[in-house]
Amino acid sequence: MRDAVVCAAVRTPVGRRRGGLAGVHAADLSATVLTALVDRTGIAPAVVDDVIWGCVTQVGEQTSNIGRVAVLAAGWPESVPGTTVDRQCGSSQQAVAFAAATVVSGQADVVVAGGVESMSRVPMGSSVGDGSAGSPLGPAFLARYGGVAPHQGVGAELIAARWGLSRTELDEYALRSHERAGKARADGAFDEELVAVPTPDGTLVTADEGIRSGGTLERLAALPTPFQAGGVISAGNASQLSDGAAALLVTTSDRAADLGLTPIVRVHTTVVAGDDPVAMLTAPIPATHKLLHRSGVRLSEIGLFEVSEAFASVPLAWLAETGADPARVNTRGGAIALGHPLGASGARVMTTLVHAMRSSGTRFGLQTMCEGGGLANATLLELVTD
Description:
Residues 262-382 form the Thiolase C-terminal domain. GO terms for molecular function: acyltransferase activity, transferring groups other than amino-acyl groups. The chain is of the alpha+beta class. 35% of the residues lie in helices and 18% in strands. Strands 1, 2, 3, 4, 5, 8, 9, 10, 11 and 12 form a 10-stranded mixed beta sheet that branches. It has a two-stranded antiparallel sheet with strand order 6-7.
């Protein structure tokens, strides 16, 4: 029976908005990680049957099927196809799920999955425009939900209220994310997954830019809550707007052997789930339950979890509902510290998870991402040891 294995996973540093990567076109960011996959595996690009690329704001520089543009920008043969998918913040996690399904079904043998977002150059929400063309939701959707146009920040506040999460709890979680990411960087835990990015001005971006040290609860408590007066969600306990790209090489065990590649993890199970689109960010909870049921793996068997840190209320609500061990969740920090380049985040998170599983010898790792529209992907990875 065919399987799906990941043989390489790479990412750029995550750049702060208007930071070190702001001068790099999204297609060139993508080409950087595609080139790194070839350099690190030694495969010929011509063996790649397809490239499936996540990108959320597909407008301006990120339109015209950036997955295909990235292939050509990387100098790969014109025979290598590429396509672009949008499942909001989980776009590149979905790209990996599509890649796994494609190779398991026999429609392809080697697929590269990943994604990109340059939030410096293509601002979040710019695909919607100024509203003069009408709401992208349409009258039937708005009628169903009482005229409410969902907003992720408001959704994060709704989640905090529903699960009784205080401002202090959220801010403490945010500080922990920075602490864990800072320790991982200092320990060299990200070194294997990172590829440096040359910029037009000749500098080389080599490290994640969002990690901050020295934060305090007092400083975070002083930040405003823009989504609700007297609320609990602030810029300090939310993910950062960022730039970046990531890519994973997906194939079968048999094809990996033919190509001289060593699988790192097996894609054990993938699911997607839907939930309330107004609260928007709660679907990782049912997605996790669905994944556990479908995989037959118990929560207690999973050694590492990566849960989207779009806002601190998301992983805290997930923890409350699943009962997972907080010490196993986002052990190298998350999007609050590292940043959240929308279309790249799913692949960035999975890249970090793959390397963390290998370095720690962890058999099972679970990743789940909250997504616009009340959606969530969940993926279970299994370390390959034979």
